[in-house]
UniProtKB/TrEMBL annotation:
Residues 160-264 form the PpiC domain. Residues 1-18 form the signal peptide. Keywords: Isomerase, Rotamase, Signal. InterPro entries: PPIase_dom_sf, PPIase_PpiC, PrsA_foldase, Trigger_fact/SurA_dom_sf. Residues 19-44 are annotated as: Disordered. Residues 19-39 have a biased composition (Low complexity). SUPFAM superfamilies: FKBP-like, Triger factor/SurA peptide-binding domain-like. It comes from Mesoterricola sediminis. GO terms for molecular function: peptidyl-prolyl cis-trans isomerase activity. This is Peptidylprolyl isomerase.
Length: 328
């Protein structure tokens, strides 16, 4: 719409700057056009009368707007029979609501409390329908604010510390059978794998023969560029403690026994602003949004009068004792 208005204004400007055409002989004035009649207001059709009260199409439209999210409404309404099904359901809801009213269910304390909660939701929605636009505008972040956030929080914008390592897992869990290995069986098998490595067999061949880890055994036990924090603590501690290229002693974890050979550990390094710009924008926007909402809520608390817990009852003022009359 804005683009079409701009084009229309531009064309008007061009017409204003164009040279005036030569005057033609004056023509007889055209008769004045009759004013166009205003379109008749759309009829608010009565869909049904329930309990003596008419239920109108505008009531159903409101129900539809509240029931179907705006971004899905057009797509849902294109489905054959969708509108009719929603209308049928709406009228059924109205029938059930009137039935509950007639049976006195609206007079209970439980109903009143639930109704108060629903009223609260509608009021909040109305409040943010009014104030939400300004709050969103206030929470927008400029490029300068994004850069300032990036520079203020350097620790948030670093590449993760990663490692690459090979391992052989001898599981103490069920390994393709209903019966898990005993501790003794697992220890004996990991020693077999250890002996094969000490005898000079390549790590990848031993992994393919002995490892129970389906995620790495066919790759010679290799896991590449894994961020610390993804594996169990005992495994990662061994990765940090062991020298690269040296197979360590068996490591016990919840999964079983591991032989680990560290290939490399990549330290965490700072990201450039360009690499982290979008992440910084999201985080800066989230922080500013929280600040805006906290200020909005604090102002609301002051406006309505908010007190944590019950308000202490005011103590009655002490009345001064009457002075005694002096004895004669």
């Amino acid at each position: 719409m804005l683009r079409s208005l701009t084009l229309a204004l531009a064309s008007l400007a061009l017409v204003a700057q164009a040279p005036a055409p030569k005057a033609e002989p004056a023509a007889k004035p055209a008769p004045k056009a009759e004013p166009a009649a205003k379109p008749a207001p759309k009829e608010d059709k009565v869909l049904a009368t329930i309990g003596g009260t008419p239920v109108k199409e505008s009531d159903f439209e409101l129900f539809l707007n509240l029931s179907v999210p705006e971004q899905q409404r057009a797509q849902v309404m294109m489905m054959p029979g969708a509108r009719e099904n929603y209308q049928k359901r709406f009228l059924e809801f109205k029938v059930l609501a009137v039935k509950g009213e007639k049976e006195g269910l609206a007079k209970t304390q439980d109903f009143a409390r639930k109704l108060d909660l629903m009223r609260m939701q509608v009021l909040i929605q109305a409040l943010f329908d009014r104030d939400g636009g300004k709050l969103r505008d206030d929470a927008k972040v400029s490029d300068e604010e994004v850069k300032a956030y990036f520079e203020k929080h350097p620790d948030k914008f670093r590449s993760p510390e990663t490692f690459s390592a090979r391992h052989i897992l001898v599981s103490t869990r069920a390994n393709g059978t209903d019966k898990p290995r005993t501790e003794e069986e697992a220890q004996a098998r990991i020693k077999e794998a250890q002996a094969a490595l000490k005898a000079g067999k390549p790590f990848d061949e031993v992994a393919k023969t002995f490892s129970d880890d389906p995620g790495s055994k066919d790759k010679g036990g290799l896991y590449e560029d894994i961020a610390f924090g993804r594996f169990v603590p005992e495994f990662e501690k061994a990765v940090r403690d062991q020298k690269p290229g040296v197979v360590g002693e068996p490591v016990k974890t919840m999964h079983g026994y591991h032989l680990i050979q560290v290939e490399k550990v990549n330290p965490s390094v700072p990201q450039t602003f360009e690499a982290a710009k979008e992440t910084a924008r999201q985080q800066a926007a989230a922080e500013k949004n929280e600040t805006i909402m906290n200020a909005y809520m604090e102002a609301a608390r002051k406006e309505v009068g908010y007190h944590e817990g019950a308000v202490p009852a005011a103590r009655p003022a002490k009345v001064a004792p009457k002075a005694r009359k002096a004895s004669k």
